[in-house]
Amino acid sequence: MTQLFKNYLWHSELFNCQSNDLTQFEQYLSTQVSRLKLQEKPLGFIDESNQHYPLSLYQTAHIDSGKPSILVCAGFHGEESAGPWGLISALEQLNPSILEKINLSILPLVNPSGFSIGNRLNLFQQNPNRGFVHQSGQVVSNSHTSVEGLILQQSMTQLLSAAQHGILTCHEDVLLHDTYLYALESHALPRPLSYQLRDCLGRYFPIADDGEIDECPVKDGIIFNHFDSSFESALFQSGSQIAFCTETPGQQVFDQRVLANRDAITLFINHFVNDNCQ
Ligand SMILES: [Zn+2]
């Protein structure tokens, strides 16, 4: 099949492997899943003749409805690999005692087939972050929904519960030198957490100038309350209290992007640990 997008690969000094090394990634993930006693919840498989990729959600062992439930996702787009590696890095420094205060769920790598070759799309040339259509209180598919999207939509009740108090999804913009984020909030203006996440990324990279990115207005490094058929938008419209999509710049050094993602994820988790959620 002809590829619609270029493959992007980088070397990571931090992990001593290539950004698309799926075997290494799974080993690092497995180590953290064991250390933090996360439970794997298999959601489905992405299959084609000689390729077979599991898609799993991982959750803290004991879900307590009295604690904040948050979901951290990465790897929807396979070339945006500093997201998944940043999540590994955040898990490595996470103190297990934090998981006594929140219900943490993670989708560490939504598009493993794209990740394995550093391509945005999956092995069927589909975009895994499109085709989540919020309609009459439900998330339904359309002609753009990917295999991964269908798997996630089959588990939407579970994912919505996991993301009840918030969702952070870690993306990258491979064409840019600057950073920005999408924030979805039920307020007229961004709340402090949006600016804190922006500043977290801004410690590593210049913050995007005011203007437009992908036809969305950016102000102070934030694209605010932009609704599309992305996973995060559908979850927010379905009841998640707050949703963020961070965008680290693919034109910058890979490991710096990993560290920026690590810090953003850590800040997001700590926000709920500190019981600031409404
Ligand atoms: Zn993306």
From TrEMBL:
<feature type="domain" description="Peptidase M14">
    <location>
        <begin position="18"/>
        <end position="272"/>
    </location>
</feature>
<feature type="active site" description="Proton donor/acceptor">
    <location>
        <position position="247"/>
    </location>
</feature>
<keyword id="KW-0479">Metal-binding</keyword>
<keyword id="KW-0378">Hydrolase</keyword>
<protein>
    <submittedName>
        <fullName>M14 family metallocarboxypeptidase</fullName>
    </submittedName>
</protein>
<keyword id="KW-0862">Zinc</keyword>
<comment type="similarity">
    <text>Belongs to the peptidase M14 family.</text>
</comment>
<dbReference type="InterPro" id="IPR055438">
    <property type="entry name" value="AstE_AspA_cat"/>
</dbReference>
<dbReference type="InterPro" id="IPR000834">
    <property type="entry name" value="Peptidase_M14"/>
</dbReference>
<dbReference type="Pfam" id="PF24827">
    <property type="entry name" value="AstE_AspA_cat"/>
</dbReference>
